[in-house]
Amino acid sequence: MKKAHRIEGLVQSDIRRMTRECMRVGGINLGQGICDLPTPPEVLEGTQEAVREDLSIYSKFEGVDPLRAQLARKMEAHNGRPTDPDTEVVVTIGATGAFAATCQALLNPGDEVILFEPFYGYHLNTLLVAGVKPVFVTLEPPNWTIALEALEAALTDKTRAILVNTPSNPSGKVFGEAELSLIAGFCQKHDLLAITDEIYEYILYDDLKHISLATLPGMRERTITISGLSKTFSITGWRLGYAVAVPELAGPIGLVNDLFYVCAPTPLQHGVARGMARMDDGYYTSLRGIYQAKRELFCGALEEAGLTPVWPDGAYYVLADVSRLGQNTAHDASMHILESVGVASVPGSAFFRSDVGQKMVRFCFAKELSVLEEACERLKRL
Ligand code: GLN
Predict the structure, then answer these.
(1) In principle, which of 158, 228, 322, 380 could form an S-S bond with 112, CB 3.0–4.6 Å?
(2) Dist. CA 168 → ligand 1 center (Å)
(3) CATH 3.90.1150.10 in the chain, residues?
């Protein structure tokens, strides 16, 4: 049996492969961004009620009314983008599902999309499956600064969109106002769509502020804002995400979402809507504080271990330079760490085309404190 052309050359993500390797040796999994913090009780209770009430049938393909209402409220209060819950929100199977539906709904085979490197492999592969050509703009550590010349150099007459993941996986880069303005100007000048992935929007460090590209002048009409509930409520396995865009763009995304998935799981949608309605801003502030403490602990331990981290400004991953371990490739370094001290990471090569990734691994520090402390002790023994 021959597989379809559209998946030729695609291999299983190293993120998932390392989870299997980690299970094999019974290690601590700092590879996949699993996020095993406790789910807020409001969300759990809301969902238990929804299951008991047997809210079990299909929802509208764009999602249940109470969740879209909550998301629209959140988009205005947190992101600064007033949103119509009926025409501008599509609830999806995770942010990954939102991105897949967006690509299928709005891009044609042969189109090009600008992707920053280091990239998140699921973005890359979803574009490839859609027949879209990714064009990379490489950013350099530690600041991952964007230059307009680099954007202009990536442009061709086939460029249709740019992807902005802020805070970024795996770099932890947070796009500030100046860089977003530059991107906004670039999109308008060349009539491009902007597809954002803002799933880590509540996880920023120090006093940094999350800015949604859709709120910049002239960007509302051309931006698809993607996010999800996984990371904010530690429900990565529930697979709830969403896309927000003007009706002309949200409509086609909803159409594809219906075709591929029909709708996201309804009791979970109701549960999250109830949870969100019962929580106040204190939850989100405390989430930041919790991750800030984990970042200090874990990046501090990496420094002590001589695995120099590029401190992230947001999200809960860190790229660390593992040259000290004297391995030839990032894959070897990652396996060496797993086999010698039982801590899983993801080889940096999963996020780079260039060799820069070969001296790095990505750790995820979204772990219970006691587990993270144990991982720190183990890494120091390397
Ligand atoms: N987003 C998470 C990561 O980067 C998980 C992705 C996945 O498991 N496919 O690790």
Answers:
(1) 158
(2) 12
(3) 5-39+282-379
* pLDDT score recorded for residue 35: 86
Cα-flanking dihedrals φ and ψ of residue 146, to 5°?
-100, 135
230 CA: nearest ligand 1 atom: 1
Provide long-range contacts, Cβ within 8 A and 24+ apart, for 71-76: 71/242, 71/244, 74/276, 75/225, 75/244
What's the pLDDT band for 330 if we cut at 50, 70, 90? Answer: very high
CATH-assigned architecture of domain 56-278: 3-Layer(aba) Sandwich (3.40)
**Nearest ligand 1 atom to alpha carbon 19:** 8
Q: How far is the CA of 195 from the centre of ligand 1 (A)?
A: 19
> Residue 11 — pLDDT band, cuts 50, 70, 90?
confident
Q: What is the CATH number of domain 5-39+282-379?
A: 3.90.1150.10
Nearest residue (by CA) to ligand 1, atom 2, is 33
CATH 3.40.640.10 domain locations along the chain: 56-278
Mean pLDDT of all residues in 44-54:
98
